[in-house]
Design brief:
Helix content: 40-55%
Keywords: Metal-binding, Zinc, Zinc-finger
Radius of gyration: 22 Å
Bound molecules: zinc ion
GO molecular function: zinc ion binding
Protein name: MYND-type domain-containing protein
Length: 275
Amino acid sequence: MRLGVGLACTPDRRRSHEYLVRAAYSSSASKKVKAMAHGLLIAWFLDACEKDGTIRSRYLLAASHHCNEAAKLCREVSPKGACASPAVLFFMKNVFEKFSPTVVELNYWYKDAIKALDERNKQISKGQAKMAQKRLKNPHRYRCAAPGCKVQSDTGKMLSQCSGACDRDKKPAYCSKECQKADWKNHKPFCRPGAECSVIDDGFFDVVGTAPSSESANGALQIPVEFADGKKVLFSSSTMDPQMLKEIRELASKRNYGDGPVLDTIQHVEFSEVD
Ligand SMILES: [Zn+2]
Ligand SMILES: [Zn+2]
């Protein structure tokens, strides 16, 4: 396959493209390797997007094709119920869905990729329903009790609870030692058996339903972020610590949603909208 010579197409990029295409269609490579190569090719084409977020239609089609191939291969090699690779899901959610209403061919040519996204969406709503139940039952378990912190977790494992004498069902949970320290003055008089719960409920869980990032993983921390233009988003990460998430919140609050630079700095962070 020969690439038209674009201005942004350096020899290095051309070489990596050639290498990936060869891997993706190699007859000797395993399906896993091929799926990976297709996934990297999606990224390759996304890198070729214009600065304003537009993408040449042949790039869009090529990326969609690689996404479809990756989804197909993933399904063949993954255990049942596993979801498609992050590259596939990222592309489907952030690019494919944006263009599929206008580039109608997309809806007919790339059925495997569409199916992968559908499956993921179903999983998410199932996870959300389950999580909402759990949170309703014991909301304190899933949100940092320090005033103003608002870090929450999709599983109880990410936060640590007060180890004092307070009742189990009323124990506050914290994202960090700092937060526990900050809340101690408030919690101290309540940290005894039979005392009222010291956690102030600001209703956050009423408006947010999020899925566990993955059933097998340890879970993710999340933080609600409000952009300068009022757009509210929930950032979620299984690798960042609470402090990093708070820094992102700080950063985002000074910019408008959709301003490239914010999203660029946290590209690897999954996010879902809070309505
Ligand atoms: Zn906290
Ligand atoms: Zn306590």
